[in-house]
TrEMBL record:
One of its GO terms (molecular function) is ATP binding. It comes from Nonomuraea polychroma. It is a multi-pass membrane protein. It comes from the Bacteria. This is ATP-binding cassette subfamily B protein. SUPFAM superfamilies: ABC transporter transmembrane region, P-loop containing nucleoside triphosphate hydrolases. Its main location: membrane. It is found in: Cell membrane. Residues 20-302 form the ABC transmembrane type-1 domain. Keywords: ATP-binding, Membrane, Nucleotide-binding, Transmembrane, Transmembrane helix. The lineage of its organism: Bacteria, Bacillati, Actinomycetota, Actinomycetes, Streptosporangiales.
Amino acid sequence: MKVLRRTLRLTWQASPWITLLVAALVAFQSVAVALLAQSQRWLVDAAGLGTVGGLLAAAALGAVAYTASTAGRTVLHSLALELVLRVDILVNDEILGLVAGLPGVEHLEHPEHLDRIFLLRRGSRTLAQLAFGLSATVAGVISIALSVWLLVAVDPRLALLAPLALLPLWINSRTLRGLRDAEKEAARHGRLEEMLHRMCTDAGTAKELRVSGAHAAIDEEAAKAWDRYATLISRARVRASSWNALGWICFSAGYLLVLALTADLAARGLATLGDAVLVLVLGARLRGQIQEVVEQIGRVIHTGQVTEHYTWLHDYAAAHGPKGDKQPVSGGITFENVTFAYPGSKAPVLRDVSFHLRRGSVVALVGVNGAGKTTLVKLLTGMYEPASGTIKVDGQDLAATDLAAWRQRTTAAFQDFVKFQLPVRHAVGIGSLPRMDHVEEAIHAAGADFVERLPNGVDTQLGSLFDGVDLSQGQWQRLALARALMRDKPEVLILDEPTAALDPAAEHDLYERFTTTTGTVGEGITVLVSHRFSTVRMADHIIVVADGTIAEQGSHEELMARNGPYAQLFRIQAAAYSGDNC
Ligand SMILES: Nc1ncnc2c1ncn2[C@@H]1O[C@H](COP(=O)(O)OP(=O)(O)OP(=O)(O)O)[C@@H](O)[C@H]1O
């Protein structure tokens, strides 16, 4: 009901006038068949009796009903198409808004949630048809009821056709349920095929795949996934059509029986010729009417699956949306006994982690690959919530604060940055759209001065998709950094290996710049993740992460004096760089 109300609201919002016109035409369609059959009955009876007035009235009624029905049907078809198209756009906008507006990213990583979003986006049109489909179904049922009523008036036994007409309807609802289950089961294969296909056609991944020669194998895997998807769906369809055919055979046998009964009644003088014509016309039309209602019900039931996901998305967005209007105040951040496991995985990636990030400090997270550094950063930016323990910002639980407001006070640059194929100004500016005027400043702060030498400076189009300039990996990375630096005086600046593509000297120089020129110094907290100890040693506080726990923490000097894992890693790297870079 909630979904119906929502889609009705969207339908009205799409166009009140078209909605009213469609409703009026649908209402007329519900009586059109009965009017037409009745006019033909009167026409034949009046002809038999030779009453000219009756003949003319019946012909006039038939002509009006026929014209209004056929013309109305054509107009209804095009108006309904237009309305559904408009509602589809609104539904898609709503879905994208809900998916993109969620503060965390859990819904984008959980396979079950991804399946739901996949099915929802594929079925958005069905959802857009819900209001129209339901009203057409009600009109169809009324139309069938009127036909049955007219048949019963000739002879009550003719009502036999009604239960027989319901049989295909019932079978169809059962088979559609089977189809719905098959679609649910197949969604994962469909999504896999889409991903593999994209891997082979996307310029970024295609390069690596060509070099490794794996594209043929991936192509094959994509074909297999598509086969699995198509097989599940087509098997369910064949099953459904066989059952539906059986239903129609039963109805056709009933129709023949009704015709034989009417012929008998006419022969015995218990029915007029007009009655026989009425039965003939209505019986033949009943098949079409039922077919239409079956199809409409099919669409509505199919919508049931999509509406389930639609409701889920709304509920999920309501449960995971902004939690309150309290804003974190300036101060330190404390992780208290934080344990965390990624969705769908039972093994915790972080176990009982506790540490404090002091306001105004530069904190470095170090550790081997997979230790849990990026996961800590994701928790800090509110992408995920801890399974147990709390993250407190000035004593306030981050899970209970408005994440959107928190994000306004933080900024981050990640190792897996995005290459936005836009003009430089926009590729950097989307870091903080209200501060578009500060793009040049951010570019300078990120050391991306190469932009000045591009053909159109900050207005140069980037990427090959739109005949733009392509950049080196290090240059793309500097732009990603500039994007992160767009935020005005962030309380927390997170740099998660955003300089991996830069040489060690450039990274050292850049971090020196960040820690002395950005707005966070003295006011905010800078969290940097790096494998380069020449950078790490600049931090005030170093946290060594090992296997999801904190192995040790302290200043560079303290950790060197302790001679623990940090000191060992530092010496190994210092030896590798012959002391030059560390
Ligand atoms: N989205 C995810 N879903 C499930 N497991 C994940 C996910 N992201 C990371 N992990 C797992 O969490 C662990 C910690 O990963 P994390 O990215 O935090 O490590 P890291 O210390 O940042 O590593 P690196 O130095 O390689 O960037 C790894 O074992 C990884 O496999």
